[in-house]
Amino acid sequence: MGADLSVFISGITGSDCSSGSLSLKSEPSLGDLPESCVALVLASLDPPEICKLARLNRAFRGASWADFLWESKLPSNYQVLVRKVFGELPVDLGNREIYARLCRANSFDCETKKFWLHKSTGGVCLSIASKGLSITGIDDRRYWSHIPTEESGFRTVAFVQQIWWFEVDGEVEFPFPMGTYSLFFRLQLGWTSKWFGRKICNTEHVHGWDIKPVQFQLWTSDGQHAASKCFLNETGKWKYYHVGDFVVDKSNAATKINFSMTQIDCTHTKGGLCLDSVVIYPSQFRERLKRF
């Protein structure tokens, strides 16, 4: 776009038309803008838009690397997050590269947990694998098993075939920046496989989840508590079940969150459930996740 506008014919100049001479007048283009001015304009855009405009010309490309521009997109405590990924803050990395690396899925705690930045907003997201949770009876192969699958970011899910006492607990301590966050369990009734390239959901063992609701709870280290209940009745589809929200008002300290999912009514068995992970997202994404 900038190249197309850089030079154009503004008209025929001069009063002597008989001379047959044409004058081409060069007009200012987007490429003539100072990089500092371009960077101020880019600062009002979200990161994907900045990266698209960086392809326009040299001025936009240079401005897109301005450190102050990307520092405004990074979380307020990004130095703490960087140390969690790299061990220490790399002195040779610019803020744009730091942002890009934090947007990747960064594993920690023996690869049972991952965190990343949402590319458009810079919001911190976190996921905890089923293998990072405390699951009652998980070592008894009569009830539970780990199933490999490409539908999980951790490449495996926990599957309960049949059990009387269903209880899943977990905790995470993480330096979330200030804001409001929502916690979800990612679950599916039935387990999926591929048959000649076609996705098939096996619901043979699904039972008992429509008799009594599942209880979800969370607690934070500063005394916040949330709880919810719901029946599980939709098969063959991964769903995010909302547990509750919590608020972080201090960015210089880690927040500890405990959470649970239980259905411990022993009057009936339940089974056929896949447990992928627990995820924590900025609450602004809550309605989006509910539509999955």
TrEMBL record:
Stretches of the chain forming a coiled coil according to its record: none
This protein's name: F-box domain-containing protein
Chain ranges of the F-box domain: 27-73
Organism: Carya illinoinensis (Pecan)
Stored CDD domains: F-box_AtSKIP3-like
InterPro entries: F-box_dom, PP2-like
Matches recorded under PROSITE patterns: FBOX (PS50181)
PANTHER family on file: F-BOX PROTEIN PP2-A12, F-BOX PROTEIN PP2-A15
Domain of life where this protein originates: Eukaryota
